Amino acid sequence: MAILGNIIKGIITIKDSFSFEINHIEKQQAILKTLLEKAKDTQFGNYYKFGEILAADDIAKAYAERLPYFDYNKLNGEWWHKMHQGETNVTWPGTPTYFALSSGTTGKTSKRIPVTDEMIEAIRQAGIKQIFALNNFDLPSDFFEKEIMALGSSTDLEQRDKHLEGEISGITASNIPFWFKGYYKPGEDIAKIADWDSRVQRIAEGAKNWDIGALSGIPSWMELMIQKVIAYHKLDNIHEIWPNLKVFTSGGVAFGPYKKSFQALMGKPVIVIDTYLASEGYIATQVRPETDAMQLNTDSGIYFEFVPFKPEYINKDGSLVADAPSITLKDVQLDKEYVLIISTVSGAWRYLIGDTITFTDVARAEIKITGRTKFFLNTVGSQLSVNKMDAAMRELEDEFETTFPEYTICAKRGEDGEFYHFWYLGSELENPDESKIANYLDEALKSSNKNYKVARGKALKGVKVKVIAPERFHNWSAKNKKKGGQVKMERVMDEEKFAEWEAFLEE
């Protein structure tokens, strides 16, 4: 009998039985007030007169009217760079303990995003919420005795001036509570290995010694790790070595594109729980099995605003126009796309994180990620968002009985001077009929997106497709950024980046 597991599950059940439904709107109002009060005497708070905002009858309205939108480049260029010059109390009291390095999907240069002690605590509280939510997933008691494999970036953080730097997954892993270390795999020694391939090799070598019940990480890199373990031990599927694997907490990107290829590595079904941990904070987590939507962490150090996702509000570089209107949680509507704006205990203010979301349940504050503002393809009026592209990939998988976990697209003129959408699709499909795939993809997008259909009747001449091995995408990421961690493949490229991509493929 799993005595320890029963104890842990019992604690989770008791905690859940005494929990009340969160009033997310009230929590958000309180979070905004707390953020402004704590930061009112910082350089930023003095400049934007946080004291006056706090005295307003409608604090949220005054806040939105007083502050502009910031993306990383604007906030770093005007404010955060001062911290690297030794200044304190810049956008948050004191100085941050960490900086999260993030190249994301945009290029080689790492962003350096402050991570304060308050943010570490907020992430910890959101993580505890996720653990207690496991009670909703009807897991057996012995699950709570199994080990958890977290595949993130290296925990060997770099000392720089008076702070430490690394990717957010490495920062959070280096701050796990002492009582959790016995469950955490691959363990501190392996987790510190900076080279991703070397770290995965050590994981494969040690896999037989662990009883893994849950996996956590970005789907694309998790798949590669699982494939390495399977190949190293000459297995048919991962359950042959980890028979008690029951849960995968997916983060960083939408799991949908990887569902079919991930399941192919399993010997039996696993529960997939989506999470939304970004370098700027722990945004949301799935808390119930009836949906794959995630609940915003409305009480964990982040204040949310939402800008309707419309072409007239988005600049070519993915930033927002200055007068784009924002709304708060109390005014959002179901099934409408919004650009996500956050303000945080790390001193990010009205910050464009770059993601677009839609609400699936307003009362529960549950959302789905639908794409990236930078990946909104509106050349010649096609208005093609990532969620539409992902949906088309799922249709292709069903039609051609394969998987397309990776893809990228560029809108540019062909040799005939006409505009085309040039697609590269990652698949193991043998002898693919690229013309047939292009036609099917084109029709799928026409049927799901009226703006795309209109564009196809006018300036958008057609679709061109090339099918390549999925590892070519991984190799591109390795060359331009690095493997593993928070690195994600760019879904939409401009012409300059696309030329580099095609030159890379020809090498």
Annotate the secondary structure layout:
Blueprint: H1 3-17, H2 24-39, H3 43-47, H4 50-54, H5 59-66, H6 72-78, E1 98-102, E2 111-115, H7 117-133, E3 147-151, E4 158-160, E5 163-166, H8 168-173, E6 184-185, H9 188-191, H10 196-206, E7 212-217, H11 219-232, E8 247-250, H12 259-263, E9 271-278, E10 281-285, E11 294-296, E12 302-308, E13 337-344, E14 351-361, E15 366-372, H13 386-400, E16 406-413, E17 419-426, H14 434-448, H15 450-456, E18 460-468, H16 470-480, H17 495-506
Parallel strand pairs: 1-5, 3-6, 3-7, 7-8, 8-9, 17-18
Antiparallel strand pairs: 1-2, 4-5, 9-10, 10-11, 11-15, 12-13, 13-14, 14-15, 16-17
Question: Nutshell version of this structure?
Answer:
The protein is an alpha/beta fold. 34% of the residues lie in helices and 21% in strands.
Could you explain the architecture of this structure?
It comes from Subsaximicrobium wynnwilliamsii. InterPro entries: GH3 (IPR004993), GH3_C (IPR055378), GH3_M (IPR055377). GO terms for molecular function: acid-amino acid ligase activity. This is GH3 auxin-responsive promoter family protein. The protein is α/β, with parallel strands linked by helices. It has three domains: 173 residues, 3-Layer(aba) Sandwich (Rossmann fold), CATH 3.40.50; 152 residues, no CATH class; 130 residues, GMP Synthetase, Chain A, domain 3 (2-Layer Sandwich). Helices cover 34% and strands 21% of the residues. The chain is built from 17 helices and 18 strands. The strands form three sheets. Strands 6-3-7-8-9-10-11-15-14-13-12 form an eleven-stranded mixed beta sheet, sandwiched between helices. Strands 2-1-5-4 form a four-stranded mixed beta sheet. The radius of gyration is 23 Å and the shape is globular. The N and C termini lie far apart (57 Å).
